[in-house]
Amino acid sequence: MAIELKGPAADVLRARRQRLSKMMSGEPILLVGHGSLPRNFLANTHPFRQDSTFLYFLGVDQPGAAAVIGAGGHTTLYMPSPAPGDELWHGPGVPFERWVARSGVDEVCDRSSLQPASYHCLPVADPVANQEASRLSGTPLDPRNATGSEDLRAAVVSLRLCRDAGEVQAIRRALCVTSEAHRVAMESTAPGVTDTEVHALIDAVFALHGMPPSYTSIVTARGEVLHGHARNEPLRAGEMLLVDAGAEDPSGYASDVTRTWPVSGTFTARQAEVYDAVLEANAQAIACVEPGRRYREVHLAALEVLTVALRDLGLLRGSLDGLLEQGAASVFFPHGVGHLLGLDVHDMELLGDAAGYPVDRHRDPAFGLSALRLDRDLQPGMVVTIEPGIYLVPGILEDATLRAQYGDSVDWAEAECWLPFGGVRIEDDVLVTADGNEVLSASIPRTRSAVEALVGTGPSPRQRLLGGSAS
C-alpha cells in the first residue's frame, strides 16, 4: 500500500529534525500528534487535522501518532496498532515500514511501547493528547498558557517562522483554489440569495479540489462582526457581503483571503468611499512589507491611511498628528493589520505570543494595538496577511470607556447615523522576498471596478450546485 505524498519529502523532514535536535543540544524531544476528536459520540468523529508542528517535522497525518527525536535527529515514530475489526470499517492499515519511507524516521514502533522520560515537549490542541504527553514527560501541558519547554518553543518558532520553496508552493496551490472560490462566490451573489448558499458554494469549490477550508469560512452581510458566519439569511440590495475564506492545501498549508462586495453589484456612494479607503490602506501596508521592516510599522501605515479617510468622512475630528497619537481610528479599525500564515491560518498561535513577538517585545495594551498578532522584524520567506478594515460596530460605539477615552476625537453622533453600515475588510497573503514582497493572492479581484464587474454575472449558488432553475 502506497502512502500519498502530501507534504515535504523524507529528506526534508529528516533535515528539519536534525536542525531541531542540534538547537536542543541533542536532548530528547517528545512530539505528540492529535487523536480523533468525537463530534457527539465516540465513533462519530470530526474530520481529522494533525497538529501543525507534528506535520512540520514528521509529515504524518494519521491520528494517535507520537515521535521521540534524540541526538543527531535520530527519530522513533510511534504509531497505534489498528483496533480489532478496524480493517472491516476503515480498510487496511499502513504497514509500519511504509512510515519509515514516508517520514525518513529511523524506526517505527507500536504506540503502546512509548515510555516516560525527561522529554522536552509542547502542548497541542487535543486535550487527551496533552494528558498523555504530560504523563510521559512529567510536564503539565495546557495550550491556554505558555506551558511546556521554553527552549523547545523557541526552537520550533525559529524553524517554522520562514517558508521554504516547497512551503510557498503549497500556499500558492491553496490560493489558486481560493481564487476560484472567491470569484465564483462573487458571480453568484445577488439579492435574494442567502449567505448560507454562498458559504456552501465556497466550501464546495474547496472540496472539488480535495481541499478543506483553512478555517470556518466567514460569509456575512454583518461585516461589523469580525468573525461572523452565515445565518441562512437572504441577502438584500444595498448590503455588502464580507467573505473571509481560504482553502487548505492537502499538505496542511493555509490561505486566508477577505473580499467585500456589494450584493446588488454596485457600491453605494458611502460604501464606495469606505471601500476605496480600505483598499488604499491595504496597498500602503503591502508597500511597507520588506525585509527588516518591523511589522508594527506596517500596521501603523494602514492606520494612518484610515485615519485620514475617517476624518474626511466626518467620523473623526482633530489634527492628523493628534488623532494618530491617540490611535482614534481604532474605534473603526479595532484589530491588527495581519498575522503570520503557514501550517496554521494564524501560524503557530498555539504557541502563544512567542511566535508573533520576539522576546524583547510585548503586546501594546492600547485599544486596537493590543490585537496586533505580529510584531517581528520581517524576514525573507515569511508569509503574512495584510487585512485592514473599517467597521461600524454598535458595541464599540456604545462603550462608555471608549467614549471617555477618545472624547471629541470621534463624532459619535455621526457614527451612530451610519448604522447599520456593517464593515469592509480587504485581506491579502503576502510573501516577504529578498528585495521586497510578492502578493500571492493578487489574482483575486480587489479593485472596486473589478469587483463590481464580477458580482451577479453568473448562475446562483443553487443553480451551480443543483442545476436547473434558481428555485
Quick take:
This protein is of the alpha+beta class and 471 residues long.
Question: What does this molecule look like?
Answer:
- With about 475 residues, the chain is an alpha+beta fold.
- The chain is built from 17 helices and 14 strands.
- The chain has helices at about 10-25, 50-60, 85-90, 95-105, 125-135, 150-160, 165-190, 195-210, 270-290, 295-310, 320-325, 355, 395, 400-405, 410-420, 450-455, 460-465, and strands spanning about 30, 40, 45, 65-70, 75-80, 105-110, 220, 240-245, 255-260, 385, 390, 420-425, 430-435, 435-440.
- It is globular, with a radius of gyration of 24 Å.
How would you describe this structure in keywords?
three-stranded antiparallel beta sheet; 471 residues; single chain; 14 strands; Creatine Amidinohydrolase; 37% helix; alpha+beta
